Amino acid sequence: MTQAKIQEAANIPAKIEEPGVRKWWEFFTFSTDHKVIGIQYIVTSFIFYCIGGVMADLVRTELRTPESDFVSPELYNSLFTLHATIMIFLWIVPVGAGFANYLIPLMIGAKDMAFPRLNAVAFWMIPIGGLLLVSSLAVGDAPDAGWTSYPPLSLVTGQVGEGIWIMSLLILGTSSILGAINFLVTLLKMRIPGMGFHQMPLFCWAMLATSALVLVSTPVLAAGLILLSFDLFAGTTFFNPTGGGDPVVYQHMFWFYSHPAVYIMILPFFGGISEIIPTHARKPIFGYKAIAYSSLAISFLGLIVWAHHMFTSGIPGWLRMFFMITTMIIAVPTGIKIFSWLATMWGGKIQLNTPMLFAMGFVGTFVIGGISGVMLAAVPFDIHVHDTYFVVAHLHYVLFGGSVLGIFAGIYHWFPKMTGRMFNEFWGKVHFALTIVGLNMTFLPMHKLGLMGMNRRIAQYDPKFTSINEICTYGSYLLAISTLPFIINMAWSWLYGEKAGDNPWRSLTLEWMTTSPPAIENFEGIPVLATGPYDYGLENAKYGVPMETNDPLTSAGTNSVLRADPDEPYPSIAAKTDER
Amino acid sequence: MKIPSSIWTLLIGILLTLVSLWYGQNHGLLPTAASSEAFLIDGLFNTMMTVSVGIFVLVEGILIYSAFKYRRKAGDETDGAPVHGNVPLEILWTAIPAIIVIGISVYSFEVYNDMGGFDPHAAHTAPMSPEAMKMPGAAIAATLNDTPPTDQPNRNQEQSDEANLDPATAEVRNADQIPQKNDAPGMGISSPRLGATPDKEGKKPELVVNVTGLQYAFIFTYPEAGVTSGELHVPVGREVKLNMSANDVIHAFWVPEFRLKQDIIPGRQTEIRFTPQKEGDYPLICAELCGPYHGAMHTTVVVQPQQEYDNWIQEQLVASRETLNQAVAMNSTDKSVSDFLAPYTTQMGIEANEVLHQIHH
Predict the structure, then answer these.
(1) pTM of the shown model
(2) Is there a single domain that holds both residue A353 and residue A276?
(3) A570 pLDDT exceeds 70?
(4) What is the complex's ipTM, to 2 decimals?
(5) Residue A548: is its pLDDT beyond 80?
(6) A568 and A522 co-located in one domain
């Protein structure tokens, strides 16, 4: 009997047979069901992803030629400002909250989130904040001081647009805080009795780390933005140098949130990947505790690295060195995760379906962003490439090659659970291939642009960079096209896809132990963990692994990876759950 | 014949090292190095590139190898080996990256020091002052308070006054409208400075140029010669010190060939020292978003032999005498977009004073 069958058999009493299929209009109501809210989050943020993507392609179209000849310079600045703001605050951050909403209660065996009404309020702030932001284009004074909005520039580029930008961010930030409180309380208080912290799925660990980070850092951004709005409207001079204010203080407050925001945007998908890889490689996650605690380490270290965005700004030398070292160290827990995922795949039985391909694409491209991140941490090198396309390349490898690929992996992986139907595998693979090619074509050449001397946020550039920019622009068109098979596949499969069954991936986490889509209150009574969330292949353990296998990594010899403690006579496999 | 896996591992390791070493030296990703600082930074980058290539190829190699080697056979519904971890292996892949990043940090520290980042004369720091040590939190409070009651000299004010002794600089700067920031006692400086390199520590720079950033131009004033220019000319092989300040919003001075960048912030006197080593014309770029025409804010830095530099100074003096007033001297033959924009900021209605007026309301 495989572990999946053991887990399913144990949870038959907890399963509600009737799937909780929702009417289409229920997704437009103030529903307090965490599953409805989760899908609302994911679909809404995907719509904003498309809007932000159109803006990105307009920016790239302007940059196809060295002259400023496609849009006016003012509009160009608005486009990249809105592109960044939308992608961060209306796509990656809320889509993470969407997954958390959908998955946390199911994974820990709860009936709903701790505060269902607060949950709905947090969601409905997203479309309000988003529409407000996009409406600035219609007003004719869109914010154009960059998503960083540094004063004094942000104080002189148009009051209305800047005011809308601040208001919108305050709304979205509040939504994020409300969501984080909900996730924390749910995770701490609503797990099934048998689930200790060390039996929690790794996605839950990641959301624990993310929510803590949101709660600590977001209020500081809100404070900074409120002070900025006073400078803008009330004539105060907190950040305005003409009145003795200090623009560098704003940079500190802004980055105190906005660097942790990077981890808020990547940690949930680290968590998602940690679910997807073991399921499709049919092997237990390698180093559960190392991955779980490295999320917490990243969360803590993420709070003390912010000034690495200010190495060329106004901070003293010793502070530059401090932030360089903390930034470098954050590569260590991140490296632990990458190597653990690789080790999970090593020796597995990998099913190369769409979610797994996206997950492997995530590992392969995120590592490029991680490496360039370590380079950027080195102060003398950062002094050269700060505010150049090297940084643009780095952040897109992290946020697109990392977060966005992680989001797609997650959507494909949990699509059968959310809709009860299976997506089309062929078009999923087409989507994957177009995305990987488009992403590397768009962002890889940008490293060279930055190193050679092209600064960012410019509408016109030195003609010697034309050919590389053309490659980037055509890559961005390919990325736009790559979204089409995804949209069509998702829409068609949701309506007409074949029935997926309750546990199509033979996974062990609790969300797969109920019907697809899950019934209104998820479980009948309390589900149980008959086997751990990643105990794939545990049934083989009692037979041991044959000594005579030639492969030193999987045989039971002295080099065996099966042996946690080299002095132990037998492979240390998972007999006691709390020791995994 | 079956080759043992340890031999394979060794061979792959050697190959990986060779590829990394080769690519780290031959990436061709950086422009010409034209200052002594640039060589230091290139050395650091090449080292990081070597390590990076190794890690990159290793990760991608394992990923692609696993995708083929460990692919599930059709119809195989069983699970893989129940491997939950391996403590020695995990310690290894925690320790090695830790050692690598600490190594890079130490190397970066050295390079930063060699570039003059810790020049004590530039930093103007007294050790922790007795008052700051007595009062808990006083040092932090001082950074929050914009005019702390202190009799410490205000280094930014001093530098600003010194730069404005030069009438040409005083003419283009509006330092009288922006109060200068105080350094925080005991905590260090509020203005970023790359001072003299250790071998030139304590010596006066051989050439001082005042740089003023405004939307959308750099204005260079040469206090010793009394020249004002829209281009930066410097003699090769002599240490230059730039005193920089901005009139309106934040700008940044960047010369890719020098590998040096420094924000220019209103209300602060930023300082950067470097020694140009290679003759040529290089782009000098504003690297901090400063408005819609940010992309047009760039000019040229001309590194030339001493003789040519002296001639240029003479020409500029003649030219400025001819135009009677000592206003901005521009080379009107050069009509690229940026140079065209630079002297006409007034006509575009983006005069520095007006911007400040807007800020104030």
Answers:
(1) 0.88
(2) yes
(3) no
(4) 0.88
(5) no
(6) no
